[in-house]
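Support request from a user on the community tier.

User writes: "When I paste my structure tokens into the form, the page sometimes reloads and wipes my input. The last time it worked, I copied everything first. Here is what I submitted, just in case something in the input itself triggers the reload:"
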């Protein structure tokens, strides 16, 4: 006769793993702090907080996989934290920085970004089991957050002002929101084996990237993520042309 689970087994099942969820909580705190800092018009601190949330968000999943502590609770908690840190926080930071003076158009642009992040996360969660791990469908929400808050960081660093800045902020916010829900494919970099051996040149490239980021963090980070956002449409067009080129001989043979 099976005595059933003991109280210690039941408590172990009901518990959660501390280490990965600790990093998720820290990322959530960084996103929340970005919102609070933007309310106090400390926009540089708000932008830096979002980038810190990105770093922590990238760590928690890898720690969960390395320590074999992946749970359904952790996945749901991470998704909710991403919605705050990369969906709500960037939209509010941008709204406080440039969009609030544009009236209804400004808060509608911020809402488009927020809704795009929510839809992007929902689609990612439902397609996780069947999606190609090498690519993202639509711009990932952390990358979209980096573009939006990166523009704020650049604007604060170089004291950018004028109507053209507001129009640029409006365009970037809407474009980032729409790219998240688009069918544009982005390389995910998940195929890189960080535990394997790499050529010596790869280490030099890493050092060069760190030097560039240290030289001018806001401009370099914004430029990198902006180029990444543009790489998606380019990659999609290249793949479409290859498919059409592959189908063309068949059509001509018929």
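"...and here is what came back when it finally went through:"
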């Amino acid at each position: 006769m099976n005595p059933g689970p003991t109280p210690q087994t039941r408590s172990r099942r009901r518990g959660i793993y501390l280490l990965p969820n600790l990093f998720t909580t820290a990322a959530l705190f960084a996103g929340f702090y970005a919102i609070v800092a933007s309310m106090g018009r400390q926009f540089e601190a708000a932008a830096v907080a979002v980038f810190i949330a990105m770093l922590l968000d990238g760590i928690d999943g890898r720690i969960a996989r390395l320590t074999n502590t992946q749970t359904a609770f952790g996945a749901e908690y991470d998704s909710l934290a991403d919605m705050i840190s990369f969906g709500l926080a960037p939209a509010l930071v941008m709204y406080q920085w440039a969009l609030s003076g544009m009236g209804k158009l400004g808060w509608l642009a911020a809402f488009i970004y927020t809704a795009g992040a929510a839809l992007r996360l929902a689609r990612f969660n439902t397609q996780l089991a069947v999606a190609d791990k090498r690519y993202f469908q639509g711009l990932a929400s952390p990358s979209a957050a980096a573009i939006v808050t990166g523009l704020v960081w650049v604007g604060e660093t170089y004291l950018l002002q004028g109507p053209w800045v507001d129009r640029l902020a409006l365009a970037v916010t809407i474009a980032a929101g729409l790219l998240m829900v688009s069918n544009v494919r982005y390389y995910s970099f998940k195929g890189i084996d960080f535990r394997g051996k790499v050529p010596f040149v790869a280490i030099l490239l890493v050092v060069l990237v760190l030097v560039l980021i240290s030289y001018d963090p806001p401009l370099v980070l914004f430029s990198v993520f902006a180029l990444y956002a543009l790489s998606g449409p380019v990659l999609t067009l290249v793949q479409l042309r290859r498919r059409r080129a592959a189908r063309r001989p068949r059509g001509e043979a018929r």
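Agent notes: The reload is a front-end session timeout and is unrelated to the input. Residues 7-12 have pLDDT under 50 and may be disordered. Residues 14-253 form a domain with the Four Helix Bundle (Hemerythrin (Met), subunit A) fold (CATH 1.20.120.1760). Escalated to web team.
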